[in-house]
Each structure stands twice: as C-alpha cells, then as structure tokens.
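Hello support,

Our group uses your service weekly, and this is the first time we've seen a run hang past the timeout. The protein is Graves disease carrier protein. I'm not sure whether the cause is the sequence or the server load. Input pasted verbatim:
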Amino acid sequence: MDSSQGSTLAGLVNNASIQRDESRLDRVPVYVKELIAGGCAGALAKTSVAPLERTRTGGFHTLGVYQSMNKLTKNEGFLGLYKGNGASVIRIVPYAALHFMTYERYKSWILDNYPMLGTGPSIDLLAGSAAGGTSVLCTYPLDLARTKLAYQVVDTKGCIKDGIKGVHSQAVGPVHNGIKGVLTSAYKEAGVRGLYRGVGPTLTGILPYAGLKFYTYEKLKMHVPEEHQKSILMRLSCGALAGLFGQTLTYPLDVVKRQMQVGSLQNAAAGGARYRNTFDGLRTIVRNQGWKQLFAGVSINYIRIVPSAAISFTTYDMMKVWLDVPPQQKSKSVSAG
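Update from on-call engineer: The timeout came from a worker crash unrelated to the input. Re-ran successfully.
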C-alpha cells in the first residue's frame, strides 16, 4: 500500500469516526443538551466567583475585596476562599440546568402557541420569569443549605461570626458540617416548611430578575453591529450588563431572603422576630435599620454578579454551539455559530 492509499484510508476512518460522533450527538434529545449546557454554565460561573461570594456573605462588607480575601486567607487558609463552594456547585448545577432548559422549553411553547406575541425579547421576559420560578421551586432546599453554610464563618478561636452583623458569639445557632446537616436541622425544626423558609422573597425576586436578565441579554445582542456578533467579548459584556440591571432592581428582595434563610443567626444578633413574609421583612428592615440596609453589600454584589452573569450566559451560548442545539427562531440576535 503506497502513501497516497494510506492517507486516503486514514481520511475515510477519521470521517467515519466524526460521523459516528455526530450521529450519537444527534440522538441526544435537545432538552438533555440544554440541561448539560446550563449545568456547565452554572458550575463554571459559580466557581469563578466563589471567593467573591465568601467576601459578600462572610461579614466583611465594611472591608474592601482585597482586604476581605486577605483576612479570610489568614484565618482559614486559601481553601477558606472556597468554603461552601461545594454546596453552591451542588445547588447551582441542577438549578442552572433547569433554569436554562425550562427557559428554552417555555420559550418554544410560547412561540408555538401564542404567535400573536411575536418573536422579540418580550418572549424572553415571559419565558425567563417562568423558568426562574420553576428552577427555584425545584432546588430551593439546596439554596437554603448553601446560604447557611456560607454565613457560618468559624474563626481561629472557634467562635461563630454572624454573616450579617459581624458579631462574635460562642452560641449563635448550631454549627453545620455539610448540606445534609443543614437540611436535617431545618426539617426537624419546622418540617417541609423549614426547608422552604425564605422561598417567598426568593420567588418574588426571581420572577422579575430572571425575566429581565434574559430580556436584557437578548435585547442587547440585537443591537450589536454585524462584525461583532460572534465575539465572545460581546457576549460577556451583554451578559454582565443583563445581570447587573436585573440584580439592581431586585436586590432588596435578596436581602430579605438571606435574612430569612439565616434565621436564628440573624435573630440572635439583632434580637428580632422572624419575618412573616416578604413585605413584612421589607417593612421591618426599613423601620428598624433604615432603607439603606436594603442595599447593604450591593457594591460587592455588583463585583460578583458581573462576572457571574457574563460567564454563565457566554458558557451557555458556547455549549449550545458545541452540542449543536438548533436555534428556536430567526432574529437579529447573535446566531448560534
């Protein structure tokens, strides 16, 4: 066999291998591809901003980002920057997978059944809101566990530092060793209701936030010049602005949610009663702590949300390209290529 025949045979083998791979990929349902893409996007985004998440929830809101990380590293070592990230990733993978997949399914359903609504970003607003609510209801107990673990900061003397007020105490609530411990404790305390403490403000916040985030992202992409439509930097920028805009409008609800989730820690430090519902929480915070408290920590949240939203949207877009997920509609927005 001469070299030309060998090259031809190698080419045929390679082509056959590629075709087999493509055939296997084609057999995977679209919704499964969307679940995979969404899960990967969520995990990468959450891990990328894990150190910033610790500075936001570790009682260091009076310090700068650099000083906060320095203090955390000194007290708990480098791995302290990622404390609670395992719980965050375990929660975010199913949450992001469901969020993106249900967003695509709701969007497809609306386009198929309500053509009078058109095909613009308004569909993304509706589909994003519905997807946000669905994913929250399915994964909320994991979010509760992640929040409690993130707020539970143990210093070198073994004292628990309250994540809201930064108060040291020897007896501020139980010390949880992991997700199972948090969920078991919450269930023993109040049953299923305990696993969903704070879900009210979460749902109230996620419906507009998720909808606005998807709406803004798609709307911004529609106004990108043709020569920049395939740029990763463009996707990162649109994703960052979308997350920033949505988070700004819904941040007060996030404050109430976190205080309701932390529960006993917040009450032990402030001596207050638990909030009955979202609006009671907003009213109580404004009355006792002032309206500025509703935006406490918003600056560090901006630093966290910008890269998180940017990485999440961009990774999802790229994963859809790699998994060959077909576009649902033709528009001026960025193509899947």
